[in-house]
Amino acid sequence: MNEPVLIAFGANIAPEENLSAGIARLHAAVGVRAISTVYRTPALIDATTPADVDLPDYLNGALSIEGVWEPLRLRQLLKKIEREQGRQSGQPGWAPRPLDFDIAFMGTTHFDQEGLIIPDPDIPKRDFLAVPLAELAPQLIHPLLGEPLLQVAARWMDQASSMRADPSVTARLRAIISL
How many other C-beta atoms can be found within 10 angstroms of the C-beta atom of residue 82? Predict the structure, then answer.
């Protein structure tokens, strides 16, 4: 059996529409196996975010895809779909986005080339990554931490979180892959 390929997703510009269209495109191209619960999360604010900017909440989640992929080729496909949904390159990290796809895991593979790092180094630092990924592959061992995703996510489950599950968006996105 193939190891899971897990993609984290998010959007905060017309997020329901852009996630629906982007996931439909990805499903048509590669086959989406499963979609996690989708969460509403506040936009990340850091030292570079202008104080006068009001950033809309994100819809975040994760999905698993079919097949065996070469990492750079998969990133190329994901970036193409992002552009088709209106994502512009070169924007600041805090900038709103119509669609964001990131390769989070390719099984237990560790990959670090051409600016692509797998597993995503932010997984242990961000609840909106760890929790949805653990829902899809709870027993997957993080190759650098040496522990299952469920254990990584459990750290967040024990803390107050600003994530709010959105059952209606979750159902809408899951319906795309069940057609």
Answer: 23
| Residues 37/142, Cβ–Cβ less than 8 Å | no
Query: Which residue bears the tokens 């522990």?
Result: 147
The length of the chain, given as a count of residues: 179
Please give the C-alpha separations between residue 151 and each of 61, 62, 138, 140, in angstroms, as whole numbers. 18, 17, 8, 10
Query: Distances from the Cα of 126 to the Cαs of 66, 123, 130, 156, in angstroms?
Result: 25, 6, 6, 8
Q: What is the full per-residue pLDDT of the chain (179 aa) written as tens digits? A: 468 999 999 999 999 999 999 999 999 999 999 999 999 998 877 666 666 677 889 999 999 998 889 999 999 999 999 999 988 777 656 578 899 999 999 998 999 999 999 999 999 999 999 999 999 999 999 999 999 999 999 988 766 578 999 999 999 999 999 96
HEC string of 144-173?
A: CCCCEHHHHHHHHHCCCCCCEECHHHHHHH
**SS3 letters across 135-146:** HHCCCCECCCCC
Helix (H) or strand (E) holding 52, with range, is none
CATH level 3 topology of 5-44+57-177: Alpha-Beta Plaits (3.30.70)
Domain boundaries, the chain: 5-44+57-177
The two structure tokens encoding residue 164: 């709010």
